[in-house]
């Protein structure tokens, strides 16, 4: 995946444990280092303390929208994608350009999206 | 007979110098003249309105005139005269008020029941008017106008009956004003008043009403011109030269010399005539006088206008009191009468003066009755005298007498009744009419001076006849008894008081006055004066010829000798006894019989007769004589006198030429003896006849006297009748006016009556009028619906009429209203389909507020009740509606506001009513929304729309509006009504549903994502497809079961115990022993925690079933939990402990279950989870927050 040999760090902000476990498994299988956050606060903690190459943000984290995390990522120029059951219609205009992963996931789609995000970063 | 004035005359001050107010200034060249307006008094009675209208229609508003209208008005009625007259003129017409100044271009109208006078140019109104007999409003005003305005007064007498105004004209003439009267041929409704005025001879011009204004303007113009020409006194400078000419002409024509009169008086009077004749200079007037013989009479009358006064020449009255009255009253008792005659009494002042003297002498009570006959030939003067009404101030009356003998009535003084009743006024000519008789006093003053000596002499005879012996005669200061001194004796020479002498019976017989020729008075003065020279010639010639003519006597019808001519003494010889002029007493006895025959022939046959051959013994010698009688006629050809001539010449001639022979003398002697015997017999016969005749004459004399007294009685009766006639006339006039007013009132009433009838016929309200006895007065047609009424039922008691309505209380209600005089109301409810009436019983009040029955009105309220019911139902609907129902006008003003409107918009009905509907518009309302609130075009379109309006607290509120027009019965839109429904809840529900849908989608997708994860994870961990199938289905089932539990409580939460039992249910109650034990107080778990825990319990249960405590038949599972508070969050401590199962073998790899519990559960729930594979059994410990950080559960 990464040309440097260091596995790329992917932040997965997802509160649903089964889904998060699936994403973790899928991304780790793809050779990524996965950082998990079930809450917005945990997400900020990780963004500030860890090297993150790309992120997948569920729009709703235990009842809290994840747009603040998105803004923080954007500030740091970290590419990210939203994951949502709502589809593109539920997004505010400011995030129209952000890719969306529709639930339930197509695993190939997840890998392709993460690839694209990582490429954009470099 | 009107007495002419004695110089100096009383004259009013001339108008010009004093009257400086109310003036008008005229500028001519350098001179400035200021003249007051002429004040025109107009008097009218019945028919006056038409005349007033006609007059003012022709009279322009002019600064030179002011008008005062005096109309006979009924004192009891309000007058509309001012209003009526004002329609005919542009001048201001006002009712006269006290103290009002008379201004030019104004018309003043007398108020009813008032006396109107004028003083110093200000009107004086005195109320009430005097009682009818003394009510002469026109006279009163004219008199005061004349006195106040002098020659600036103009008086006009218009239509009316009666004679009011005539006396006033006299005053106007006296003061030099102008007088007009309406012409008889004019459209005079009643011509009595103008005709009476005209007959006084005091009216200057008689004209048609339409021509009067022009005449007034001309008069004014000439007056101004004359003033400009004349000096400050208003007297013509050229008058002086012409005065003598005028007086000469007048003297020559009417025989009265006015040259001794006061000069200024004469000049003023002549000038007055000049104004009337419209001649500018005296020379013109003289020319006019020469041409127009009538003018002499007019001028003469003008000169004669005078005033008499009370107690004129007080000295004479003092003498009368002192010397005559005591004698007149002496010996007279209560049954006797003192009789006085005042000929030429004019307006009665002298008669009343004498009455006062007599009353003062007699005292207030008892004494003889007094009759004062006051006569005059001028009927207007007599009318004035009869009224006994005199203008203040009274001339010649002392204050004591004024107080005692007069009553003050308004501006006038009226002689009190006792004095008035002493006087009898009548129209009577002293020359033509028979005199009164048996009088005690004749007061004839200032009358004789106008009569010539013959008439004077005749009047003295008359007075002599009329007076009792010893009675008194009072003459004027310049009159005296020249030739009748044998009939009267002087009592007081200075004051001309005489007493009648006692005379013989024979004389009394002959002194009966003979009525003279009717024209004697009028023509004699002229004849006497003109005939002076002729008479002198006649007298001379007669004296010369006397000796050639036979002696004669002229005898009258009474056979009294009136003239002796020639030597009649030869044939006459007075016989012994009382002296007499009776011809047959005087005549020689031998001549008496032949003379008697001749005289009879002359008087009866009116022809001459001659008796020849008479012999008379004269101075002892027989003388032959021829006796001739010749009748002498007066102007009418009637034999009044007879000339008896004694012709001796014929006798001597015969004697000379026919000497008798002795033969014939002898024969003569025989026959003369025989003749003498015959003669003697005849003589005695004649004497008897003569005596008989004389007694007949005496009888006639006394009969005549009886007639005299009857005549007097008739005269006083006539006078009374005259007075009552006047009263009747004035009553009649007032009745006339009252009648006219009543007529117009009647018209108005008829109209009103017809209005009322129409109202009664057309009204739908059943109305019934009952009298106090409940008898039917009248009713409207609608009443027949309520009672079986027919036309003939009027007057019947209503209780006799059967009613169509159920109203048994009628009688009680009516009685109660009559008792309490209030209004009673009652509803008469009909049975079934019958109508319902609202009944009102009111007292019937007459116009003068007397209760005279009751009025019942039955208003059919069936419809109105039905409407009320409908309205009530609608109102209930509106009130109970959850929607705001708002009514508004076509202009958009709110008129109704129901409770829901109040609830929805926050305004109370009181606050909202009257406000514009647009107050509900939000500030940021769109144009489209606003259009609904604009009502520029009439009509309201039915419409349904949704909008956002605002509440009182400015909150936006979504409403669904249904707008509809309110139409009247004609289909015309008269208002609008809208129903606004608050749709905010619906909006919320919609939004919620939308949100729920999105949420459902989200959750389904999340759930699918979970299922996907389970599938993939199970697949990864399953060695075979069968394993996958079993594991996957069991996990899905566990998930599904939790969803079931969540759905049960509508996703509110799940009981922890239920969650655990759901998983462990197959083992809990197996064979009556519980292998599963739960410890802890049950609590509700949020869906998230529930879902996560259910998955964890499923994995633990599956593991226990496969490998743990539940894999054998005796192992147990204890699940215990507790909630603790740490860091302001509640935490769930839960432990799963297995025991009794097979020995535990710690697995080498972490399966899905382990990962799920230790990784996933702690991750998702942000807690801690430990899983220990202890030898006695698996133990799982969970510490989980029950709420998210930062929030309190």
From TrEMBL, chain A:
Organism of provenance: Dyella acidiphila
Name this protein carries in UniProt: Response regulator
Domain Response regulatory: 9-118
PANTHER family: PROTEIN-GLUTAMATE METHYLESTERASE_PROTEIN-GLUTAMINE GLUTAMINASE 1, STRESS RESPONSE REGULATOR PROTEIN 1
InterPro entries: Bact_response_regulator, CheY-like_superfamily, Sig_transdc_resp-reg_receiver
Pfam families: Response_reg (PF00072)
SMART domains: REC
PTM sites of type 4-aspartylphosphate: 58
Keyword tags: Phosphoprotein
Domain of life from the UniProt record: Bacteria
Entry coiled-coil feature ranges: none
From TrEMBL, chain B:
Occurrences of domain CheB-type methylesterase (ranges): 34-223
Domain PAS intervals: 870-915
UniProt domain CheR-type methyltransferase: residue ranges: 242-504
Active site: 45, 72, 164
InterPro entries: Bact_Chemotaxis_MeTrfase, CheB_C, CheR_C, CheR_MeTrfase, CheR_N, CheR_N_sf, HATPase_C_sf, PAS
Known catalytic reactions: ATP + protein L-histidine = ADP + protein N-phospho-L-histidine; L-glutamyl-[protein] + S-adenosyl-L-methionine = [protein]-L-glutamate 5-O-methyl ester + S-adenosyl-L-homocysteine
Domain of life: Bacteria
Gene3D superfamilies: Chemotaxis receptor methyltransferase CheR, N-terminal domain, Histidine kinase-like ATPase, C-terminal domain, Methylesterase CheB, C-terminal domain, PAS domain, Vaccinia Virus protein VP39
Keyword tags: ATP-binding, Chemotaxis, Coiled coil, Hydrolase, Kinase, Methyltransferase, Nucleotide-binding, Phosphoprotein, S-adenosyl-L-methionine, Transferase
Residues that span the membrane, as ranges: none
Coiled coil: 665-759
Cross-referenced SMART domains: HWE_HK (SM00911), MeTrc (SM00138), PAS (SM00091)
Protein name: PAS domain S-box protein
Phylogenetic placement of the source organism: Bacteria, Pseudomonadati, Pseudomonadota, Gammaproteobacteria, Lysobacterales
């Amino acid at each position: 995946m990464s040309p440097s040999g260091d596995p790329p760090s992917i932040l997965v902000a997802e509160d649903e444990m089964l889904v998060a476990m699936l994403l973790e498994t899928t991304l780790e299988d793809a050779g990524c280092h996965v950082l998990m956050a079930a809450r917005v606060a945990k997400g900020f903690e990780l963004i500030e303390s860890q090297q993150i190459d790309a992120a997948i943000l569920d729009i709703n984290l235990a009842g809290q929208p994840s747009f603040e995390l998105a803004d923080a990522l954007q500030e740091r120029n970290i590419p990210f994608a939203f994951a949502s059951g709502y589809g593109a219609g539920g997004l505010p205009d400011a995030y129209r350009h952000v890719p969306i992963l529709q639930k339930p996931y197509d695993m190939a789609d997840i890998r392709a999206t993460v690839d694209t995000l990582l490429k954009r970063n470099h | 007979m009107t007495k002419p004035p004695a110089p100096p005359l009383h004259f009013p001050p001339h108008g010009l110098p004093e009257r400086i107010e109310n003036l008008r200034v005229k500028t001519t060249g350098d001179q400035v003249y200021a003249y007051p307006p002429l004040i025109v008094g107009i008097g009218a009675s019945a028919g006056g309105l038409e005349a007033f209208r006609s007059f003012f229609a022709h009279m322009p508003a002019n600064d030179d005139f002011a008008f005062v209208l005096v109309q006979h008005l009924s004192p009891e009625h309000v007058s509309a005269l001012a209003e009526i007259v004002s329609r005919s003129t542009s001048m201001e017409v006002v009712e006269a008020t006290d103290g009002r100044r008379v201004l030019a271009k104004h018309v003043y109208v007398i108020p009813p029941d008032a006396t109107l006078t004028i003083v110093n140019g200000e009107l004086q109104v005195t109320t009430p008017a005097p009682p009818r007999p003394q009510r002469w409003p026109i006279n009163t005003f004219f008199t005061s106008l004349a006195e106040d305005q002098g020659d600036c007064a103009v008086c006009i007498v218009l239509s009316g009956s009666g004679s009011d105004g005539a006396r006033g004209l006299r005053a106007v003439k006296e003061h030099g004003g102008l007088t007009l009267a309406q012409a008889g041929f004019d459209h005079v409704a009643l011509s009595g008043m103008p005709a009476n005025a005209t007959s006084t001879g005091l009216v200057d011009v008689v004209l048609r009403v339409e021509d009067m204004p022009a005449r007034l303007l001309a008069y004014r113009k000439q007056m101004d011109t004359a003033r400009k020409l004349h000096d400050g006194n208003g007297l013509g400078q050229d008058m002086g030269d012409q005065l003598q000419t005028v007086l000469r002409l007048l003297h020559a024509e009417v025989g009265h010399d006015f040259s001794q009169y006061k000069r200024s008086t004469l000049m003023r009077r002549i000038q007055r005539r000049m104004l009337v004749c419209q001649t500018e200079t005296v020379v013109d007037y003289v020319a006019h006088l020469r041409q127009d013989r009538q003018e002499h009479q007019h001028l003469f009358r003008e000169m004669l206008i005078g005033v008499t006064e009370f107690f004129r020449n007080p000295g004479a009255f003092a003498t009368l009191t002192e010397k005559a009255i005591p004698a007149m009253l002496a010996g007279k008792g209560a049954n006797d009468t003192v009789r006085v005659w005042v000929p030429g009494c004019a307006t009665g002042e002298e008669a009343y003066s004498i009455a006062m003297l007599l009353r003062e002498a007699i005292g207030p009570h008892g004494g003889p009755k007094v009759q004062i006959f006051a006569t005059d030939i001028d009927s207007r003067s007599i009318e004035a005298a009869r009224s006994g009404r005199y203008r203040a101030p009274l001339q010649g009356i002392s204050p004591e007498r004024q107080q005692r003998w007069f009553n003050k009535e308004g501006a006038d003084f009226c002689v009190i009744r006792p004095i008035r009743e002493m006087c009898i006024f009548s129209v009577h000519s002293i020359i033509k009419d028979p005199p009164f008789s048996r009088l005690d006093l004749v007061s004839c003053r200032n009358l004789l001076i106008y009569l010539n000596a013959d008439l004077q002499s005749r009047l003295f005879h008359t007075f002599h006849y009329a007076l009792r012996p010893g009675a008194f005669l009072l003459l004027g200061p310049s009159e005296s008894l020249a030739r009748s001194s044998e009939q009267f004796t002087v009592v007081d020479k200075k004051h001309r008081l005489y007493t009648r002498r006692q005379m013989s019976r024979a004389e009394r017989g002959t002194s009966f006055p003979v009525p003279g020729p009717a024209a004697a008075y009028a023509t004699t003065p002229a004849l006497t004066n003109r005939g002076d020279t002729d008479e002198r010639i006649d007298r001379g010639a007669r004296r010369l010829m006397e000796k050639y003519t036979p002696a004669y006597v002229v005898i009258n019808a009474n056979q009294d000798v009136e003239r002796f001519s020639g030597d009649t003494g030869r044939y006459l010889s007075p016989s012994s006894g009382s002296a007499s002029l009776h011809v047959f007493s005087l005549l020689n006895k031998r001549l008496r019989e032949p003379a008697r025959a001749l005289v009879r022939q002359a008087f009866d046959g009116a022809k001459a007769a001659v008796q020849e051959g008479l012999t008379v013994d004269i101075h002892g010698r027989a003388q032959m004589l021829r006796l001739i009688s010749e009748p002498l006629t007066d102007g009418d050809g009637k034999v009044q006198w007879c000339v008896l001539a004694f012709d001796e010449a014929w006798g001597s001639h015969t004697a000379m030429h026919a000497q008798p022979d002795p033969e014939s003398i002898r024969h003569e002697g025989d026959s003369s003896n025989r003749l003498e015997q015959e003669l003697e017999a005849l003589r005695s016969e004649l004497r008897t006849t003569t005596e008989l005749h004389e007694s007949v004459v005496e009888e006639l004399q006394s009969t005549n006297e009886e007639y005299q007294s009857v005549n007097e009685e008739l005269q006083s009766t006539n006078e009374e009748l005259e007075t009552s006639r006047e009263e009747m006339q004035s009553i009649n006039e007032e009745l006339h006016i009252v009648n006219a007013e009543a007529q117009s009132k009647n018209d108005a009433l008829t109209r009103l009556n017809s209005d009322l009838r129409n109202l009664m016929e057309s009204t739908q309200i059943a109305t019934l009028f009952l009298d106090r006895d409940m008898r039917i007065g009248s009713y409207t047609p609608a009443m027949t619906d309520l009672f079986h009424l027919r036309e003939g039922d009027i007057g019947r008691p209503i209780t006799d009429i059967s009613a169509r309505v159920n109203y048994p209380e009628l009688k009680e209600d009516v009685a109660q209203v009559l008792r309490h005089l209030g209004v009673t109301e009652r509803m008469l409810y009909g049975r079934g389909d019958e109508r319902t009436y609202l009944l009102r019983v009111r007292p019937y009040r007459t116009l003068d507020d007397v209760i005279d029955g009751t009025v019942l009105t039955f208003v059919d309220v069936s419809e109105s009740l039905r409407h009320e019911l409908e309205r009530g139902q609608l109102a209930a609907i509106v009130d109970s509606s959850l929607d705001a129902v708002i009514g508004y006008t076509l202009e958009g003003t709110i008129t109704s506001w129901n409770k829901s409107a109040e609830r929805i918009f926050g305004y109370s009905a009181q606050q909202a009513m009257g406000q514009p509907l647009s107050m509900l518009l939000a500030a940021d309302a769109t144009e489209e929304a606003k259009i609904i609130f604009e009502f520029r075009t009439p009509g309201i379109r039915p419409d349904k729309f949704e909008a956002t309006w605002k509440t009182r607290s400015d909150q936006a509120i979504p409403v669904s509006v249904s707008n509809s027009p309110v139409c009247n019965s004609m289909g015309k839109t008269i208002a609008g009504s809208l129903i606004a429904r608050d749709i905010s809840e619906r909006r919320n529900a919609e939004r919620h549903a939308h949100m729920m849908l999105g949420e459902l989608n989200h959750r389904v997708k999340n759930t699918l994502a979970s299922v996907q994860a389970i599938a993939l994870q199970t697949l990864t961990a399953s060695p075979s497809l069968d394993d996958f199938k079993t594991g996957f289905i069991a996990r899905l089932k566990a998930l599904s079961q939790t969803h079931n539990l969540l759905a049960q409580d509508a996703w509110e939460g799940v009981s922890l115990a239920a969650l655990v039992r759901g998983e462990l249910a197959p083992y809990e109650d197996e064979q009556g022993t519980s292998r599963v034990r739960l410890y802890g107080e049950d609590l509700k778990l949020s869906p998230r925690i529930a879902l996560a825990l259910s998955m964890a319990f499923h994995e633990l249960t599956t593991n226990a079933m496969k490998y743990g405590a539940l894999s054998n038949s005796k192992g147990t599972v204890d699940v215990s939990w507790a909630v603790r508070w740490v860091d302001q969050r509640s935490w769930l401590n839960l432990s799963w402990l297995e025991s009794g199962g097979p020995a535990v073998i710690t697995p080498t790899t972490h399966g899905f279950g382990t990962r799920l519990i230790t990784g996933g559960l702690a991750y998702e729930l942000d807690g801690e989870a430990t899983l220990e594979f202890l030898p006695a059994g698996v133990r799982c410990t969970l510490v989980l927050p029950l709420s998210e950080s930062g929030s309190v559960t």
